[in-house]
Q: What sequence folds into this?
């Protein structure tokens, strides 16, 4: 019985923290957009494509490394295994469909 109460309490606390986190993310995005607008509204997006069937058949591998914990960054892995990191306003992943490209209100160059 006490175990169930503790479990419910932790689930409620988890839900509350998750909501707060999402609210903070929304506020961060709003503030970021405001800063960008004040700076001149220039944003840089990156989309790296998946390997095509010919590249897969040839045994090629992607040189792009993407870490979900750093969703606005990619790393390019060179043939000598050195890495170069690049940061963007948003990175579209290879599995993102066309519907994920919500660029309304963005000036494209």
A:
């Amino acid at each position: 019985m006490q175990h169930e109460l503790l479990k419910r309490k932790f689930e409620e606390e988890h839900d509350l923290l998750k909501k707060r986190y999402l609210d903070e993310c929304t506020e961060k995005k709003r503030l970021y957009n405001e800063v960008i607008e004040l700076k001149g509204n220039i944003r840089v997006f990156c989309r790296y494509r998946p390997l095509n069937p010919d590249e897969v058949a040839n045994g090629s591998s992607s040189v792009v490394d993407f870490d979900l914990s750093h969703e606005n960054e990619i790393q390019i892995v060179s043939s000598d295994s050195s890495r170069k990191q690049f940061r963007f306003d948003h990175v579209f992943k290879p599995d993102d469909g066309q519907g994920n490209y919500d660029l309304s209100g963005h000036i494209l160059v």
The chain is about 40% helix and 15% strand. The longest helix spans residues 2-39. The chain has two domains: 1-42, 43-97. Residues 1-42 form one domain.
